[in-house]
Protein 1
Amino acid sequence: MSPETTGIFGDGTPLPEPPPDTPPDPVGLPAAYLDYYRDTVLRKLDGLSEAELRRSRLPSGWTPLELLWHLACVERRWFRWGFTAEPVEDPWADQDADGRRHVPDGMTTERVVERFRAQCARSREIVASAAPTDRAAVGGRFATEEEAPTLAWILLHVLQEYARHAGHLDIVRELADGEVGE
């Protein structure tokens, strides 16, 4: 096997394959991976009981449902409020005054999943309507053109956030019921 197809230690472990049908263009590739990780997060939560979704198994105290709510807010912050400068009510809705993540009182799991899916759908629309070199609009998250990142930068930033949190959910899921991620 060539170094491109083996693990970092040369032990013959195959490297992860890209999501199927990934386009080679500079927006299509990260957008396809972002969709892959959006689905991965939902798969990792699928099968957990309501109690496990709302239970923390980590010293930091966050729960799997809080993480999903956080990712819905990340989508809204970076694509709607950030890139398009859409006015959004409470862009930091996933955090309390102390910066701790939380799901709003009374919000059901179904509603969190629905909001997550809706935010992802809106983000896809935004990405499809712009070029990777387009800069975020001024007036939402960004006050000046100099600080406004490109769409390509935002895509990669959000992608790395998903990849990191998918790994967190791997650990939580294994602790909850022994399921191990792929």
Note: The CA atoms of residues 138 and 145 lie 6 Å apart.
Protein 2
Amino acid sequence: MKMGSAASSIASNSTQIVAVTPKDGPESIESHFDEAVSVFGVLDEVRKGELEQTDAYIVACFGDPGLYAARETTRAPVIGIAEASFHMATMISSRFSVVTTLSRTKIIAEHLLKNYGFSEHCRRVRAADIPVLDLEKDDGGRTLDIIISECLRAKKEDEIGAIVLGCGGMADLTPIISKEVGIPVIEGVTAAVKLAESLISLNLTTSKYGDWAFPPQKTLKGSVHSLSITDSYQQLNRRYISS
């Protein structure tokens, strides 16, 4: 799994990366529908992680599906790769552009930029018009060339200082693209790893005051019953409470 390998390559020696894929959901996320369906899998993986006393979670899809819902269910930090990459980009450049996969996902990225407060920093969201799963294929470098070409156009036309790659599937391409384009290129998986490590080292956890408090305890029906927030589930989070 390319994202897991990219995360492990950048992680500190004391950090263990566990890359998981929900057993239920779409094979790739390329629409609002895909995102909505995928949220149940994200929440299920967080629940499993709580049983393993996981210290932090990374939602490795650029749409950050289920990010706020996941934060409600744990005190551990939960980081979305889009939000992480936007933060990193603004620390090294006053303006950036996003290069993503399909044109229809541009709107999703634009919504995130607005919701996270980064719209004024982003000059443009661009699409390379490639399906997400094409990033997994060995096509002799054709897909990589398309992404590099779009990044070069962004550099020339957008008056930016950095580029954010808008798909977790591009996690292994950052060094090559950055070298070819000649400006900083930020990829969200590795950015999220470093932010997660920073939050852990600072002993900062997800606040349980306000709208990220645990959801009201209630029994969920049908296939999502296992996601019910119960008192015993909240007990798992007591390990995060310090003095």
Note: The two ends are 39 Å apart (CA to CA).
